[in-house]
Design goal:
single chain, 687 residues, alpha+beta, 7-stranded mixed beta sheet, 24 strands
Length: 687
């Protein structure tokens, strides 16, 4: 279980509890953005995260969750070679596979939750997997910022700079990336805080490796010199599940001792099962045998650890066989009197992690009592007291008995020539097409490429046209393209695709099959979560006791277009109350930029989706489209009148689009012409 390292008198805190606390406040403090950095993820845990559910739940995506995703648009960065079919993931969940050179990986782990009132950041050792969240021994550090008076605001500045410098380029495929939207929110939120730039003397900092020329070890040395000028460390303490497979001749311990030649003692903590992978060569030649220690975590958990698990889970574990694997990474570098640096994060005790091959992220903090923190770590991980260093062989086995599951090797069949794939509208057609970006695209001929059940054909990296209906058919389960090697039919690789900006802007219309579906959802957003047919059994607003299920409208609208129009207008009238309340809640937001974002996401964007649907869908009578668009236009104008001049700009583009659509739908009927003149006159007179 991922846990925060406590101070001596503190308690452990896990990520599930941090996230649950944010969800519990979501009604008054809604989540606006989710950003995840991970090596890999489980579909179930990602679905739970983006739907604001308990992370241990085992449920598929509810239809209300799909609509929620279109508003929040979570963004996930992970290692490209860990892409799977992802058959349960929905559209508009933004996935960015990060490419790294051979035998290295994207190993950073961070989770950022931006709500209307707060910004939460968690950095640690755990992936977004079930084992990472609930089974492994993990560590984390978390921060919450609500104003300029919040503690450690320099970490927030470092986090924003880190994302801007190293991940905005990863999100380049979409002109309206969810990361760009999140960064805009963070910029607007913090601009009024007037935060100073980070200073080296601050007592804690984010530490990265593999993102540029400076390695994590370089950063560690620089920070030591900034915090402890004229002082030298004497001891090194490391917790790690994985190590260099071939430590000779320049293992990480040797690399560190070269930078800190005064080090005299090295202590390594790992699982007992990892002892077979280790050797004295992992300790290097710098440390004397009597100053080298290997501490092991027994495979059987202690009574104290079982009791902690029971306190957190509120249930007995007496009859359960608990198997917990070390995945935490901790490093303590200290002087003889206990002053020093504590690190926790994603970096194993290996050259790849600390010398710049892997992308790694962690947190370092200046500490005054390394000895006390060491005892907390030993107790928290249930480390046995014995020293097993003398039991180690001089060199490790040629083939390690326990391999690192996060070790990435080269695969000659992997289509590494692909940089990214974009789904965008086709020019001049009501269709989409895929465009593959990269070098040596002629190699695409080596693969059969599928999207769900559709075989794609490409010419110069561009696929055939795909009807919009096919996109709606793959709202769930169509998040990746499969590249199946033609010579090795049992070998497949998957790539998630990004969305052109036009599709992002149109997402509120794309996730609804029709205007009737749109109305049904907004009258009862959670109806599809109750085991009913989401397309046909949405109920009207519960305050209307005489309301009929939307399913019954199907017969009426087929039988009599006048009755159908009456039903539509009755439904729309009920929806008006929903959006009146949404606008009222949005206007209560204190911070101006946050208030405009709330108006945009909660009111303007959904209504824009309805306007697009009304323009696209077929109608029985030409006047139907005109009357529906007219009622929408009048309602939007009434909402705009309730806002200030600045806030009214959020409605301007929507009103202009409705005017244009009304002109196109006017026709020659006299009644329709009169109605058109009336509505357009009202819209033009709007302030």
């Amino acid at each position: 279980m991922a846990k925060k390292l406590p101070m001596p008198s503190g308690d452990f805190l896990n990520f599930s509890e941090i996230f649950s606390a944010a969800v519990a406040l979501a009604e008054d403090d809604p989540i606006e953005h989710l950003m995840v950095l991970t090596f890999e993820f489980d579909e179930q845990q990602l679905l739970n995260l983006v739907q604001h559910r308990a992370l241990e739940e085992q449920k598929d995506l509810a239809r209300s969750g799909l609509k929620l995703l279109s508003t929040i648009r979570p963004v996930v960065f992970y290692d490209a070679r860990k892409t799977k079919p992802f058959g349960r993931l929905p559209q508009f969940l933004e996935l960015h596979p990060c490419k790294t050179p051979g035998f290295s990986c994207h190993h950073s782990k961070a989770y950022c939750i931006v709500t209307r009132k707060a910004i939460r950041l968690v950095v640690g050792s755990f992936n977004l997997t079930y084992t990472g969240l609930f089974r492994n021994r993990e560590v984390l550090q978390e921060w919450t910022w609500q104003s300029a008076k919040s503690a450690d605001t320099h970490i927030l500045v470092e986090w924003m700079t880190f994302l801007r410098e190293h991940y905005m380029t990863e999100a380049q495929a979409s002109s309206q990336s969810a990361l760009a939207a999140a960064m805009a929110t963070l910029d607007a939120r913090t601009s009024s805080w007037r935060l100073p730039p980070p200073a080296p003397e601050k007592p804690g900092h984010l530490l990265t490796s593999g993102y540029g020329e400076r390695s994590g070890l370089d950063a560690l040395v620089d920070q030591w010199n900034a915090w402890f000028p004229g002082q030298v460390p004497s001891s090194l303490f490391a917790v790690s599940p994985f190590f260099d497979e071939n430590p000779a001749p320049h293992c990480l311990a040797e690399q560190i001792s070269r930078r800190f030649p005064t080090l005299s003692r090295l202590e390594i903590v790992t699982d007992a099962a990892n002892q077979a992978n280790l050797s004295k060569a992992h300790f290097g030649k710098h440390f004397a045998p009597d100053q080298s220690a290997l501490r092991l975590i027994p495979e059987t958990i202690s009574a104290d650890e079982r009791a902690r698990i029971e306190r957190q889970g509120s249930q007995s574990t007496k009859d359960l066989a608990l198997n917990r694997v070390l995945h935490a990474k901790v490093l303590l570098l200290a002087t003889g009197d206990g002053a020093g640096i504590a690190y926790l994060g994603s970096a194993n005790f290996s050259r790849k992690a600390w010398l710049g091959d892997n992308r790694e992220l962690g947190f370092i903090e200046r500490i005054n009592n390394a000895h006390a923190l060491r005892e907390i770590v030993l107790r928290g991980l249930s480390v046995a007291p014995s020293n097993h260093f003398e039991e180690l062989p001089a060199l490790p086995p040629e083939s390690p008995p326990k391999s690192d599951p996060e070790e990435i090797g080269e695969d000659a069949l992997f289509p590494g020539f692909i940089d990214f794939v974009v789904l965008a509208p086709s020019p001049g057609a009501d269709c989409f097409r895929f465009r593959v970006h990269g070098k040596q695209l002629e190699r695409m001929a080596e693969y059969d490429i599928h999207w769900a059940d559709m075989l794609l054909t490409f010419a110069d990296g561009v696929s055939q046209d795909i009807p919009i209906g096919q996109f709606r058919n793959t709202l769930l389960g169509g998040r990746t393209l499969e590249f199946r090697h033609r010579q090795k039919g049992d070998r497949s690789f998957w790539f998630p695709f990004q969305y052109g900006g036009e599709i992002i802007a149109d997402r509120q219309a794309l996730i609804h099959a029709s205007s009737w579906d749109w109305l049904a959802f907004h009258l009862n957003p959670n109806g599809a979560d109750e085991g009913e047919d989401p397309e046909s059994t949405q109920w009207l607003d519960g305050r209307n006791s005489a309301a009929l299920p939307v399913a019954m409208l199907d017969v009426d609208r087929e039988a009599n277009c006048v009755i159908a129009m009456q039903h539509y207008l009755s439904l729309f009238s009920s929806v008006e109350g929903c959006f009146e309340r949404r606008l009222a809640e949005s206007l209560k937001v204190d911070e101006p930029s946050a208030r405009q974002r709330a108006i945009r996401s909660q009111v303007v964007e959904p209504l824009s989706g309805l306007a697009t649907l009304l323009q696209r869908e077929p109608v029985q009578q030409p006047a139907d489209r005109l009357f529906k668009l007219g009622e929408l236009g009048l309602f939007v104008e009434s909402l705009a009148r309730q806002t200030s001049a600045t806030e009214r700009t959020e409605f301007a583009k929507l009103v202009a689009g409705i005017r244009s659509a009304l002109d196109a739908a006017k026709g020659s009927d006299a009644l329709a012409a009169d109605y058109h003149a009336f509505v357009v006159g009202q819209l033009r007179s709007a302030p």
